Amino acid sequence: MKPSFNDIFMNLATDLARRSHCVKAQVGAVLTKDTRIISIGYNGPPAGTHNCDEEWPTTGCARDAKGSCSLALHAEENAILYAVKNGANLEGATLYTTLSPCLPCARLIYSAGIKYVLYDKSYAAYKGLPSDEGVDFLNRFGVVAVKMDTGITDL
């Protein structure tokens, strides 16, 4: 049986996460449109700056007030920024990500015109939050954001 595009793209996002230099969490993202890959990304500092796993192998980079990496871009941000930098039209695109979007990433996803988000694991569970604020935000404003294992078919 042929794998679905959802499975193919989520598997790629999972593989990309392994490229991350983050000591705390590895996250990958794939942006697609009409079953074609537009852009990819994984979490980490801006290209050409540093690698956390090399500079701070045991602790990772400094934390901000909310306990998040102070130097890193999220996987979704990296995928979106690269796509925009290269002139891609993201209106109606689908984002596959290994961790559900945080609220700031959700605002970026919505503003970029992305229509669907499929995620593997919960950001809220990872951070110990009561709900997935980013997912709630996206669904409230018309972006379909669902966990991959909900049985959704190809978009």
From TrEMBL:
- Which stretches make up the CMP/dCMP-type deaminase domain? 4-136
Could you list this entry's UniProt keywords, alphabetically sorted: Hydrolase, Metal-binding, Zinc
Q: Which SUPFAM superfamilies match?
A: Cytidine deaminase-like (SSF53927)
Q: Which domain of life is it from?
A: Bacteria
Q: Which Gene3D superfamilies match?
A: Cytidine Deaminase, domain 2
The record's annotation in Pfam families points to: dCMP_cyt_deam_1
Provide the cofactor list for this protein: Zn(2+)
Record InterPro entries = APOBEC/CMP_deaminase_Zn-bd, CMP_dCMP_dom, Cytidine_deaminase-like, dCMP_deaminase-rel, Deoxycytidylate_deaminase_dom
Q: Which PANTHER family match?
A: DEOXYCYTIDYLATE DEAMINASE (PTHR11086:SF18), DEOXYCYTIDYLATE DEAMINASE-RELATED (PTHR11086)
State the family it belongs to.
Belongs to the cytidine and deoxycytidylate deaminase family.
Q: What is this protein called?
A: Cytidine/deoxycytidylate deaminase family protein
